[in-house]
Structures are given as structure tokens and as C-alpha cells.
């Protein structure tokens, strides 16, 4: 069973030995291993039951460290890194050959991020390699935002969970890549698309899909709770589903029902994002047959929240064998 503790040096000691450990980041908990050590990377895929065609993000201390692993950084990427690192922004950059194929699923770009969480920063300062760290959950399931969520799913398979408290952002990073130096958002996440566009101008958006099995963060069904989830107007849905055996994920309205969670009573998108995975987790554990959820306002972090809810609600899983 994994030990849970707050010793950065213990986490570093295990990572140096080639083991994988769960670490806190400001987005969600990551399952970390030495990104330059193929056995450690293979162990990440094994523990997560993640298909190897789904590439991993490498985590580095800062921009100079990132430069060790990428061939060059296009101008808009540099501007974004300077503005948003450390923080929930992942950049897809042309990789150096030191990065193993297994990390990138054979792609010629590598996903790089500089996490802001103080314990992740301390850990990265202690080790002399980048950390490959996908979310510390079984493939396709809800991302963990607390150490105990990691313990529930992966506790039997890893030696240590570095506990940094609840994740302050609660959503995965925003992923930005470049096609002919033109920025494209591949995953909506902890930094709003509007904030990115405010810095580098108009970006493309390429979120789907089933036709792109290389990037399952983009799979139609992902981030899925164990119960069926239906997305729509709660007032409408409650005309069709029994109120007393349905879990309700409302944005701010209190329906006075037994199994409900309010993402943000004050209507704050940041607070809603921070609670999203926790509340889905709590709702799936309640004695309900279905979870009814309403979308957030389609702006800022609301777009990233809605992206997760749509994937959680999708009925087609690709590949469904991993559900
Ligand atoms: P996770 O680590 O669970 O947050 O998922 C990381 C996601 O990053 C993957 O599912 C992909 O969607 C994306 N990703 C990582 N590396 C690349 C890459 N080189 N090209 C495109 N997408 C990538
Ligand atoms: Mg994930």
C-alpha cells in the first residue's frame, strides 16, 4: 500500500531509483516517473492501464530546463511560456531525441509543462531529469484532485503519494501546439482560451476527436464517472428522472434535493473548476442511478468544465476496453 506523506526528498529518492510516485500539481495529481528512463515511463502506462498511443506530458522546473528537451521554441510559444509558466499550460514542441519514443508515442513533438505547485517545484529542483506525469488515475476515469483519490485507485500499485493538499485549479492543463508557427489549442484546461488569445492573438481550436486516437485526452468519452451522466437543463431533466434517486450537479442553484452538489454557489468559474472532479467523485459514490449535470456558462474556464462534462456524458468510449 502506498505511503502518503509530504516528504519531497523521499519522492525524489524513489524517482531516482526509477520508481513511479504520485505528486501534487496545481491542476490535478500526477503519476510521475523519470521521463528519460524507459522502464519508469513503461511503469506509468502499466499502472494507469493507459494505451501507449496516448503521449505523456513532461514536467520541468522552468523555461531553461525545457530548452534541454526541445529543439526550438516558436516565438508565440516563448511568449506564452514567459507569461503563464509556472502554471497550467502545456506546450507541444519539437522534441530532442533524448526524449524516449514511449513518452511521445513516437510523435516528433513533446508536451512540456512547468508546474506551479510548490511541492512539484521543490521536487523538480531536486532531480536532474524531467518528470513524465499524466493524471494519477486509471485511464479514462476521473482525475484525482486529492491524495486520497489517488490512494483509492492506485494505492496498491505505487510506493508513495506526495500529499500537497487539494489541487487549487482542479482541471488539467490547457494544451497548445503550433502548426507552421500558428497556435492551436488541443485541450481546454486551467488557463482560459481567452487569456491565451489575449497574449498571442487568435488561436485555432482542435478538440476532437474520435478520429484522432493519438490523443485520448481528446477522446469522446473520457473523465468518466462510473454512473451514467446526463447533461442538460436540470429543470428539464428533473421532469424525466426521479429526483430522489438522481445525483444533481448544479452550477449554483440549490434544488434542495438529497443528492446534489453545487459547483459554485457564488457563480465563480474558478471555484467551479476546482470542485468539478471532486463532486463527480462524490456523486458517483452516492446511492443514485444517474448523475444529472448542467453546463456552465460557455466562456473562460466554463468552456473547459463543459468539455469535461460532455466527455463524461458521452456514451461512446474509444477504446471502450479501457473503461
Ligand atoms: P494527461 O497527461 O493525462 O493530462 O494527458 C496528456 C494529454 O496530452 C494526452 O492525452 C494528449 O492528448 C496530449 N499530448 C501529450 N503529448 C502530445 C503530443 N506530442 N502531441 C499531441 N498531444 C499530446
Ligand atoms: Mg488524464
Description:
This protein is α/β, with parallel strands linked by helices and 323 residues long. It has a domain of 86 residues: Rossmann fold, CATH 3.40.50.11030. Helix content is 31%, strand content 19%. The chain is built from eleven helices and 15 strands. The strands form three sheets. It has a nine-stranded mixed beta sheet, sandwiched between helices. A four-stranded parallel beta sheet has the order 12-15-13-14, with helices on both faces. Strand 10, helix 8 and strand 11 form a beta-alpha-beta unit. Helix 1 packs across helix 6. The protein is globular and about 55 Å long. The C terminus is likely disordered. The protein binds adenosine monophosphate (AMP) and magnesium ion (MG). The site of adenosine monophosphate has 20 residues, from strand 6 and strand 10.
Summarize the structure.
The chain is an alpha/beta fold.
Keywords:
alpha/beta, 19% strand, 323 residues, binds magnesium ion, 11 helices, 4-stranded parallel sheet, disordered C terminus, 9-stranded mixed sheet, Rossmann fold, 31% helix
List the helices and strands and how they pair.
Layout: E1 3-5, H1 8-16, E2 21-23, E3 30-34, H2 38-48, E4 57-59, H3 63-67, H4 75-84, E5 89-94, H5 101-104, E6 109-113, H6 118-126, E7 131-132, H7 147-154, E8 160-162, E9 174-179, E10 182-187, H8 193-200, E11 204-205, E12 228-231, H9 234-240, E13 246-250, E14 260-262, H10 269-284, E15 290-293, H11 301-313
Parallel strand pairs: 1-8, 4-6, 5-9, 10-11, 12-15, 13-14, 13-15
Antiparallel strand pairs: 2-3, 3-7, 4-7, 5-6, 9-10
Helix pairs in contact: 1-6, 10-11
Bound molecules: adenosine monophosphate and magnesium ion.
Magnesium ion binds at residues 134-135, 143.
Amino acid at each position: 500500500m502506498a505511503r502518503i506523506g509530504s516528504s519531497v526528498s523521499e519522492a525524489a529518492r524513489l524517482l531516482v531509483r526509477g520508481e513511479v510516485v504520485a505528486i501534487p500539481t496545481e491542476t490535478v495529481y500526477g503519476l510521475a516517473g523519470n521521463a528519460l528512463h524507459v522502464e519508469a515511463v513503461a511503469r506509468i502506462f502499466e499502472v494507469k492501464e493507459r494505451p501507449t498511443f496516448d503521449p505523456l506530458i513532461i514536467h520541468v522546473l522552468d523555461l531553461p530546463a525545457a530548452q534541454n528537451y526541445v529543439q526550438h521554441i516558436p516565438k508565440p510559444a516563448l511568449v506564452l511560456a514567459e507569461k503563464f509558466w509556472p502554471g497550467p499550460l502545456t506546450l507541444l514542441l519539437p522534441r530532442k531525441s533524448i526524449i524516449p519514443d514511449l513518452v511521445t508515442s513516437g510523435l516528433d513533438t513533446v508536451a512540456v509543462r512547468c508546474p506551479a505547485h510548490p511541492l512539484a517545484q521543490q521536487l523538480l529542483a531536486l532531480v536532474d531529469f524531467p518528470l513524465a506525469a499524466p493524471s494519477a488515475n486509471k485511464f479514462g476515469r476521473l482525475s484525482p484532485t486529492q491524495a486520497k483519490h489517488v490512494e483509492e485507485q492506485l494505492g496498491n500499485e505505487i510506493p508513495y503519494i506526495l500529499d500537497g493538499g487539494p489541487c487549487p485549479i482542479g482541471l488539467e492543463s490547457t494544451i497548445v501546439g503550433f502548426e507552421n508557427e500558428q497556435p492551436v489549442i488541443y485541450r481546454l484546461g486551467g488557463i482560459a482560451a481567452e487569456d491565451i488569445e489575449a497574449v498571442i492573438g487568435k488561436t485555432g481550436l482542435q478538440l476532437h476527436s474520435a478520429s484522432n486516437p493519438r490523443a485520448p485526452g481528446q477522446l469522446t468519452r473520457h473523465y468518466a464517472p462510473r454512473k451514467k451522466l446526463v447533461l442538460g437543463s436540470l429543470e428539464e431533466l428533473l421532469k424525466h428522472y426521479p429526483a430522489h434517486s438522481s445525483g444533481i450537479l448544479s452550477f449554483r442553484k440549490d434544488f434542495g434535493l438529497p443528492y446534489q452538489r453545487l459547483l459554485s454557489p457564488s457563480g465563480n468559474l474558478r471555484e467551479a473548476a476546482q470542485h468539478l472532479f471532486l463532486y463527480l467523485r462524490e456523486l458517483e459514490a452516492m446511492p443514485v442511478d444517474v448523475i444529472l449535470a448542467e453546463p456552465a456558462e460557455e466562456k473562460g474556464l466554463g468552456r473547459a468544465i463543459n468539455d469535461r462534462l460532455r466527455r463524461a456524458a458521452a456514451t461512446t468510449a474509444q477504446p471502450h476496453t479501457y473503461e
